[in-house]
Design a protein that fits this description.
By secondary structure, the protein is mainly beta. It has one helix spanning 84-92, and strands spanning 7-11, 18-20, 44-47, 50-51, 58-60, 65-69. The protein is elongated, with a radius of gyration of 17 Å.
């Protein structure tokens, strides 16, 4: 079972151009799982729906939307060793991939 990722949207309201640098990790290599757990997800950064190279400065302006996708952590232990009820609850809560 891997950790839950979250997306954060930032809408730019400035009338001026803004230089932004995104210092993020786990965009290329996911966190590994342990003890049979699955790997976590990958993080990402988009501006207006386009994936950007987060290693380079970006410029945004009013009306732009930045989305930061945080990576999920690696899981611990095989989900198949959990009871059916626990796996169904985990899936309903979004803890497991379908």
């Amino acid at each position: 079972m891997a950790g839950s990722a979250r997306d954060v949207a930032i809408d730019i309201e400035s009338d001026d151009d803004i230089a932004a640098l995104f210092v993020v990790e786990r965009t290329k290599i996911a966190a590994p799982g342990l003890g049979g757990g699955t790997a976590g997800g990958l993080g990402f950064v988009t501006i207006n729906g386009k994936t950007i190279d987060n290693r380079r400065p970006q410029f945004v302006r009013g009306g732009d939307r930045i989305v930061l996708g945080t990576p999920g952590g690696g899981g611990f232990g095989s989900a198949n060793l959990r009871s059916t009820a626990d796996r169904e609850r985990d899936q309903k809560m979004g803890y497991l991939e379908r």
